[in-house]
Amino acid sequence: MDVELTRLPGIGTKQEFVTGDGRRVGVLTHRDGHRELLLAGREDPDSCVATLPMTEAECNALGTLLGAPNLVAKLQDQQREVEGVNTAQFPIAERSPYVGRALGDTAMRTRTGTSIVAVVRDHVVSPSPRPDFVFAAGDLVVIVGTGEGLKQAAEILEAG
Amino acid sequence: METALALEELGALFFGLGVLGRLAGRIGISPIPLYLLGGLAFGQGGLLPLAGIGGFTELASEVGVVLLLLLLGLEYSASDLVGGLKRSWLAGIVDMVLNATPGAVAALLLGWGPVGALAMAGVTWVSSSGIIAKVLSDLGRLGNRETPAVLSVLVMEDLAMALYLPITTAVLASLGFLAGLRTVGIALVLLVVVLVVALRFGGAVSAVVDSPTSEVFLLRVIGVALLVAGVASQLQVSAGVGAFLLGIAISEDTAENATRVLSPLRDLFAAVFFVVFGLNTDPREIPAVIPVALALAVVTTLTKIGAGWFAAHQSGVGSLGRWRAGVALVARGEFSIVIAGLALTSASIDPGFAPLATTYVLLMAVLGPVLARVVVPVHGALSGRRRAAA
């Protein structure tokens, strides 16, 4: 699926894709950060039948509604591989204390017994990142460890 | 006593503009035509001539133009402009040819000579970014597929203004061919330098004005903007262009902060600018130019629709979307008045110029948003009838 990015000079950026149904769905991110959900019409695919302004919380809620079950299923799938050792992927959220800080700062192995085995950024995988790897918001951190350790790791990445 | 009178007049003027702005919001049109009307009402030959505020309003309206163009520049990053240039230069040229020609032809037919033709071409050429962005947002069309095409036409126009304004300034000052060429050269070099600097070292320019305290930030931004505008003006490059280029060079985050702190000031001073333009226009001369203004309005509405239609067609948008793009671009406003204001400073411009430009912008600033609203139902009705006939 191709997500198309269009810059709207003076307004912001629009990211959208076409569903299997042939409708454009997208998000318009204004320069001040507020977002609108876009849904193209069926009769006139160039126009939008809905442009819905959404707050940060609403975006998160909708994202969870759409994406979360999917993510859980994926995690469960991966966890079947080896008994007792699990793999999980955690996003570095915008407000994570580790945005802009090095991997070593998390002291992940010492604190939770888990290992960070890869970081995915913009679909590019950095395998075995070194301690001086600097996190950015939106990175996806792949961690291996026990179930309990992974839970702690998620908390560390979220709250420090 | 003079100060007291000036304060009273200014107070009444600003309060009156506030009332007009509110009215514009109520009926859903741009406040620009109402500010012009306000200026017409108070100016020479109007209902209530204001005497004591000439000195202040004259300078304030200059500051208004500088802020108007500075904020316009802040809207764009250098990469927006370069990207727009690569993608839509053809649409930009079609837009220029279609819309500058009617103004130029009208001025020549009226016997205003090549200088008048050059200025009038600019008045009919440039759409109002301010009005159009507002209308697109109000009508929920920002996500539409034709919208990037509309915006890139605006980008091209704004970029073209960075060359057009200095050329026009030079011609209006009747600098002669060589001096005019030098001015254009300076403008061209400046534009290239600014684009390169902004693309490569945008951070450095931003660092000059940046400050965590909003008070210091505001003072620095305005200080630098007025300095740059003043120097540009001394080089005969037009103060507005200097401010516009500065706006482009200021990069992302700083630009956003600057837009936030400057917007209210811009609204205040730009309102004064429109009023002063109205003040300097004698309303008694308007009836005489109405036929020409109406004819220009009709022709340039059609040519703008053509330009928008073409731009949208280029980005593969369907028929209704092309019409939407066309009518979206019809509104003329702040830039046309900036050009007309520039023209007024020259002795070589016909006295009929200001009333014609005013009347034309009054028509187009109201007509544009109205057309943008009705295009979809009208298109629906027409294609319904066509379907019924088939």
Automatic annotation (TrEMBL), chain A:
Biological process according to GO? potassium ion transport
Q: Which Pfam families match?
A: KhtT_N, TrkA_C
- InterPro entries tied to this protein: AAE_transporter (IPR050144), KhtT (IPR026278), KhtT-like_N (IPR058776), RCK_C (IPR006037), RCK_C_sf (IPR036721)
Domain (RCK C-terminal): residue spans on this chain: 75-159
Cleavable signal peptide: none
Q: Name one GO molecular function term.
A: monoatomic cation transmembrane transporter activity
User: Which PANTHER family does its entry note?
Assistant: K(+)_H(+) ANTIPORTER SUBUNIT KHTT
Q: What is this protein called?
A: TrkA domain protein
From TrEMBL, chain B:
Look up the record and give one Gene Ontology term from the biological process aspect.
proton transmembrane transport
Question: Subcellular location, in the record's words?
Answer: Membrane
- Where is the chain membrane-spanning? 6-25, 32-53, 59-77, 161-181, 188-209, 221-249, 261-280, 286-311, 323-344, 356-376
- One Pfam entry name: Na_H_Exchanger
Cation/H+ exchanger transmembrane domain: residues covered: 19-372
Top-level taxon of origin: Bacteria
- What are the entry keywords? Membrane, Transmembrane, Transmembrane helix, Transport
The UniProt entry's GO CC annotations, sorted and at most eight, read:
membrane
- Principal localization reads membrane
List the molecular function annotations (GO) for this entry. Answer: antiporter activity
Topology of the protein relative to the lipid bilayer? Multi-pass membrane protein
Q: Which InterPro entries match?
A: Cation/H_exchanger_TM (IPR006153), Na+/solute_symporter_sf (IPR038770)
Hey, which family's this protein in?
Belongs to the monovalent cation:proton antiporter 2 (CPA2) transporter (TC 2.A.37) family.
Q: What is this protein's name? A: CPA2 family monovalent cation:H+ antiporter-2
What organism is recorded for this protein?
Actinomycetospora corticicola
